[in-house]
Amino acid sequence: MSSTSQPGQSQTFGIPWPDLNDGLSYTDVVRLSESKLTLIGFYTSKYKSSAPLQGWLQRIRNGQITIDGRVVTDPDTVLRVGSELVYQRLPWKEPDAPHMLEVLYDDDDMIALNKPSGLQVLPGGIFQQRTVLTQLQWQASKQSTCFARQELHPVPVHRLGRGTSGILLCAKTKLAKTRLATYFADGTAHIGGSRDINKEHGTSGKISKLYRALVSGILDNDKVVIKQPIGTVKYPGVAKGLYVASPSGKPALSIVDVLEKHIQGQHTLVEVQIQSGRPHQIRIHLAFIRHPLLGDPLYAVGGQPKSFDCEVLDDSFAQDGGYKRPTKPIPGDCGYYLHAHQLVLSHPTTNEVIKIIAPLPSILWTQEESKNINLE
């Protein structure tokens, strides 16, 4: 038995973002190996990627750090084992981001959203409040006060890049979260195994994802299977490293089908199916085959960043004491055209096959689709 999500009555939700977020608190308990360090020594050694020396000194002297609940402004204060340190990051204005979300599918176990380009999924970096997760939490809070029902805590079970639009699947219960997360993990884990490509290309697994994208240049072949591994390299502004095409990376599989070739504009409209889910996989794989996403500010031919030159971090710092934003592009930068268009999965509790479709942005329509829509 199967069903398809029906756009019919399009439901949307979203609360406009406050001008400033609520700030953040970071808590640490001093370990034995850290005792007898000074306060400034602790933060500059443990969180050196957060701010330079002068930035941490500013934060301490501003009274943003407490030890066991007491504000301490002397950076040379010696720490004792077991003490609780709290750094309070002051509220700041996050960059502009959309706040409205369209509901594509909704039941007691899960909800599928049509995420707009420009909205981050989970908190990270300068986006701590302006995320999908925040809007989900606000919506759940409204519903739990309006209805006599068990309070739900919907959370995304996978990620889409900030510049990527389309289907984002979220779980409402712990059971659904566990099972949906397993679907995504299983699809990735099987890549590189002994199964043949035809089986991997099929939808025999628990989940299948189909994307629409606009790439630079004209693909020679109408179908391309990409099995380039993906790993990380050091990159300014990305603490955990930037994902790139790497022979020593983890296995990844993308199947690319050409939909239309635009010779005059020198770009190609493609459909991409993935079952593995490495970060930025489609962007990296298409760049690896010499056809990066049109408008991608970060990835160039070969699946590498456009610039590998490492920036030297100096003692200059932003208003909040942290490092200034890198001048080079970072993964969250937008400008490319990639849309999670279709998702087919087994329902986490009923096993019913569910097909969810996110309407395409007009720039990703085929000529035939454009004609049909104009006729309606």
From TrEMBL:
Domain Pseudouridine synthase RsuA/RluA-like residues, every copy = 110-287
Cite the entry's keywords alphabetically. Answer: RNA-binding
Return one GO MF term: RNA binding
Catalytic reactions of this protein: a uridine in RNA = a pseudouridine in RNA
Keyword RNA-binding, does the record have it? yes
> Could you mention a single GO BP entry for this protein?
enzyme-directed rRNA pseudouridine synthesis
List the InterPro entries: PsdUridine_synth_cat_dom_sf, PsdUridine_synth_RluA-like_CS, PsdUridine_synth_RsuA/RluA, RluA_PseudoU_synthase
Q: Which domain of life is it from?
A: Eukaryota
On whether Zinc is a keyword of this UniProt record, the answer is no
**CDD domains, alphabetically?**
PseudoU_synth_RluA_like, S4
- State what protein this is by name: Pseudouridine synthase
Q: Which organism is it from?
A: Quillaja saponaria
